[in-house]
Amino acid sequence: MAITYNRAVTSRRTAISDHATQVKLEAAADAYEEAPAQLQASILAAARNGERPAAITRAIKHAYTYEYVAQLIRDDKAANPGLYAASAVAS
């Protein structure tokens, strides 16, 4: 389950008074919100280049478990078999 936020809920009373701080906070929140999709895309790109799930899991410092990484790759490989090299095995 992804954690989301809604900037529309903020009001003048709760807004950050320093504009630079407000911009930094919004940028950090955007990065946090987009991070899971970007990490998953990077995992699949590595797998499509022949990297193994165990190596990917170590490279991402176990942000996702080996089992999740392997399942993500298996699902993508089933949906997009032409994007994987014949020797790339997602097991």
Which short descriptors sum up this protein?
elongated, 91 residues, mainly alpha, single chain
Outline the structure in words.
With about 90 residues, this protein is mostly helical. It has one domain. The chain contains 3 helices and no strands. The protein has helices spanning about 20-50, 55-60, 65-80. Helix 2 (about 55-60) crosses helix 3. The chain is elongated, with a radius of gyration of 18 Å.
List the helices and strands and how they pair.
Blueprint: H1 19-48, H2 53-59, H3 66-79
Please report the total strand number as a whole number.
Answer: 0
Report the uncertain regions.
none
Quick one: biggest sheet?
A: none
- Overall number of structural domains: 1
Distance from N terminus to C terminus (CA atoms, Å) equals 25 Å
Q: What is the alpha-carbon Rg in Å?
A: 18 Å
Summary of the model, kept short:
The protein is mainly alpha-helical and 91 residues long. Helix content is 56%, strand content 0%.
